[in-house]
Give the backbone structure.
Amino acid sequence: MRSRTIRQRPPHPRGNDRSAAGLQGDPCPNPQIHSRTSNPMNRPTIPILTLSLITLLLVSPSTHSSSADPDDRFRRACEAYSRNAFAEAEALFLQLAQETPSDPVLPFNLGNTCYRLGDPAKAVLWYHRALRLDPGDPDIHTNLRIAREDLGLISPEEERVAASRSNPWTVTRDWLLRHRLSLWRNLALAGYWAASLLLLLHVTLRRRSAAWSVPRWLIGWAGAWTLGASAAWGIGAMAQAGPPRAVVLAFQPPARYAPLADSAVRFELRTGEIVEILDQADGWYKIQRPGERESAFLPKSDAEPIVAE
């Protein structure tokens, strides 16, 4: 690993000025949550409506304060982060993440905040949640690797050995999962329509005995593009369609043979480890390690699903 410094995320990729609460440089410069449209209630209204609104604000100030502007709350979270008030920043980022579950910036910020709070296992959980929303972000991958190394889950030497022993299927699957499924879907659809239009144009020109027609190699290239993107889309969907996963948050909890507190220990888990959830009932998860067939039972309080229930 080249650096032990948690990386700051670049500005929001969708044109938003918001930045992550990174751990180097100026955290959250010029944060913005959403572009606001003008409120139709800002235009002049009749005096009765104005008086009613003033009365409502005076009678229920707690309701007004609880619905603070998300931009303002994000700024406050960044300010709390910059002055090392990480618990306050975590509470604000968590509230925003619950309101906007599709935004990868917020779970990334929560991962950085939990890391600063001395909880790398919780940071691993939030980095995984951020990767589900933005699997190609290199900063999330870097910070996740740093948090995992702090937990002793993998060393740089073990990572190099594992990479050298990876089979082609694993390498291909991991590469595909670094991109959103919507990318492969859009590429497949674009290739399909391109091949269809080229083929239609080719047939039309031939029927009219035109001097020029669409080269067959171009149609074949569009068809191959469609097949390749469709295969990538299918492989990525299959890889994501496995059992739900959870991050172990407790300190080296035992996984037991039966869902009982006094049951024999089958194996011990490591803090921050990823497990697959096979079933759940009565406060227990039936789990197994990825790629292994040995299953065991773990209390729900010892792990948290990556995809929130």
